[in-house]
Amino acid sequence: MTIKNHIPNFITSLNVLCGALAAFAGFQGLLPQAAILIFLASLFDFSDGLAARALKAYSPMGKELDSLADMLSFGFAPMVLLHMMLKYILLGSFSADTLAAQPTQIAIILSPFLVTVFSALRLAKFNVDTRQSESFIGLTTTATGLFLSALAYDFTNGDGWLHTLIHNQWLLLAFVPVFSFLLVSEIPMFSLKFKNLSLKDNVDKYLLLAVSLFFLITNGVGGIAITIALYVLFSLVKLLFKR
Questions:
Q1: Phi-psi region for residue 96, left (φ > 0), alpha (ψ -120 to 50) or beta?
Q2: What is the mean pLDDT of residues 87-110?
């Protein structure tokens, strides 16, 4: 194999590195830094596919490595951040001893790692599901990870309504069953790929982009989470109208 054939796997390996460092930073209570590393991981996740197509450097190893990278960067590291947010709310500190808490508190604080299990199921399902070549069925691990990472960034760095909202333990806890369900659900998520620039053919995509831009401007990084929530909502509305 020539050097160019290894470039996509090298980019995917950077995804792995960012995910591992994000998990480490998250356990240290460095939520904004961890979130930024996960955002970087998503950039590498996008770039490795582009590189593979541009260089025609596809390989079975690359496919497996990509799934493992996604599991770490979007299935595990963001759950560390949700875990730490719940820990801070319930115990008052990122450095508090979780195992010294009440059993109910321990269960709540550790519950985000259930989403990690469903992320693994999601990735395994995607790898053998031939229906998901053009669009997705169920929410992707990447979208789930970016949603939680954006909230984690706003958890310590934000100061608006979203910052206040996400300091509610019951809202954060609700994300566990919601994302666990969405990851393995049969709900079709509309494709964000543009086959042409026609307004008629892409009205849902243009509408989502316009609304997303508004929330990114008004809410900063937290707008990423709002955008993903809107993406899920738009997909559900589109499904209902199809019926």
A1: beta
A2: 96
